[in-house]
Structures are given as C-alpha cells and as structure tokens.
Design a protein that fits this description.
With 387 residues, the protein is mostly helical. The chain contains 14 helices and 6 strands. α4 packs across α6, α5 packs across α6 and α6 packs parallel to α8. The longest helix has 114 residues. The chain starts with 22 loop residues before the first helix and ends in a 7-residue tail after the last helix.
Amino acid sequence: MANRTDPAAKSIRGTNPQNLVEKILRSKIYQHTYWKEQCFGLTAETLVDKAMELDHLGGTYGGNRKPTPFMCLVMKMLQIQPEKDIVVEFIKNEDYKYVRVLGAFYLRLTGTDTDVYQYLEPLYNDYRKLRRKLADGNFSLTHVDEVIDELLTKDYSCDIALPRIKRRWTLESNGALEPRRSALEDDFEEEEEKEEDDQVMVDAGAHDKDYYRGRSPTRERDRDRRRDSHRYRDRDYDRDRDYDRERDRGRERDRDRDRDRDRDRDRYRVREEKEYGREREREREGRERDRRERDRRRRSHSRSRSRSRSRDRKDHHEAGDHRKRQARSSASPRRRGDEPNDGSTREEPKKKKERKEKKDDGTDHPDPEIAEANRLRASLGLKPLRP
C-alpha cells in the first residue's frame, strides 16, 4: 500500500508516473530505509521539509547501488503527484538550492516541452555550487546551471532515462515558444542607452565635437562583441537544425538499408528453399534409380545362379552316366553265345530312359505354350509345370 500510486494521480506520457523510473531502481528505492522511514506518509506540504534537509543530489552509489535521498524524494513526488503550482514554487525557491533542483528534476520528468523550457531555462542564471554523489560513493562539485543544462540536453541524469523533448528551434518555428532572450541583453540595452545619452551630451559641446565625433574603441569593441554574440547564437541554432536534419536523413538511410536487406534476405531464402527442394528431388530420383538398379542386379544374379545350378546338375548327371558307362565297359564281357544276335535288346532300355526323361521334363506336352514354358524352366533348373 505504501508503494502504490495515488488513485487521484493522472497518467504521465500514457503510463503510471512511477514507471518513469526503471524497475530495478524502483525496487531498490522501495527497499531502502530512507524510503521506509522518512518518506512514509509524506504529502505535498510535508515533503518540503524533507527537501530542505537535502545536502547533496545523485542517483545510486556503492557496490549494491543504493539510492540517494534525493532520488527517494523524486520517487515520492511521482507517487503523490503534487500540483503544478507547488512544483513551480519549488523551482522559484531561491533560498534552498536543492529544493529548486528537486522541482526542476520532477518537472523535467512529468512536464510538457514548453513548460520544461519555460521554467528551467531561467535557472541558467543560478551559479550556486552543489554536491553530487558519484557511483563510487565520493562527492564531486557541480553548479545549478550545469545540472539544468544536463536536464535539457542529455538523455540520462541521476541514473534515470529522461523522456525525450523537442528541440527548442522546432518549438520556436511552430510558434509554441518565443525566441530565447538572454538575461544579459537587458544590461546590454541599458549600456547602449547610457552610451547614446553620453554621446548626445558630448555632441553638445562644440569644443570637443571633432574629438567625440569619432567612435570610441571601447564602445566599438563592446558593440562588436554584442553583435558577435547574436551571430554566434544564430549559428548555434543553425548548427542544431542542420544536425537534426542530418540525423533524420541518417535514420531514413538506415531504415531504407534495413528494408533492402530484409527484401534481399527474403529473396535469398525463397531461392534457397527452391534449390533445396530441387536437391531433394534429385536425391529422391537418385535413390529410386539405385533401388531399380539393385533390383535388376539381384534378378540377374538369381538367374545366373539358377543357370549355374542347372548346369552343375546337368554336369553331375553326365558325370554319373559316364561313370556308369565306364563301369559297364569295364565289366567282364559276356560269352559270345550268350550275347544276343541283334542290338534291339540293348537299345530298348535307352529308349525307355529317354522317353521317361522326356516325360518328366514336360517338354512333350501337347500344348505348345506349356511345352515352351517347361523348356524355359528346364533351362533355368526349375520344375516343369503340371498339367
């Protein structure tokens, strides 16, 4: 409940005011003893007393990055969101310089662009010294105008990212702000009026008319210095304007370069996908071709094996027949009277055997197609087809 934003507070730049401080720094502030003991229950009126007790400013310090009391009070102002009049009174306070810096820092976080320039630029004339706590815990000497310049020109201050604001010359061109008027211009104008009066009084004297008609080197030097100051100011505005234009052109070039790079990357990705698809198709065709080649080799190998097997079987039968003939020839010859007179009895078993082989082979089948298939199967060493 103590860390919750005031329900009546308005959103700043579309978010909770406390979200203007980074989450890590915000959690460190919530855990700090100064926040728990000194900032509990503070209101816009009682916060002034705590601000008057400040003796330095800064963000975080030490090894564990402890927040300073200045940062705790900034967080408290974001939480309770005091009215704009109170913040303006903080800035206009000339007795307590840290109260002025606290109000300026809060206005830089939450104020509009015109309010920031309108209320913070007059503080350039405040040259009082300030103590600033560094990250290592030591103190450094700075001035109020240096802190204001940091708030108006830098992106970070006291470990907080400052919201972006428009350039002054942009607001001047839009008519939201009047051209900046230096506090020294009034003194210059008074001096010029005084010099003109002196010149008139001098011209009244006739005896010194010729002498005083010429210009004084001191007045001429002062007038040239004032003219140069205006010229330098215009040149600074022109330089800032040119810098912003160059930065915008650089951003446009970077954006176009990124867009072209993304388009080329998409084109290359589509081309690579097409090439990858073609490569996969070629690999698939190669695998299919290899598979067909292996099947063809396997079939041819099986045919060659069956032919070699039938050839071996035939050679085996022929060898067996040869051995039988040798055994028959080596047997003792029969008597001449026992031998038959004709060779009919010897040819009859041979004819029966041939008839039997033909009958077992199936090549003498009456159907010519079956006989042709049986001859082919016999050449391959396979069994004949049965009718």
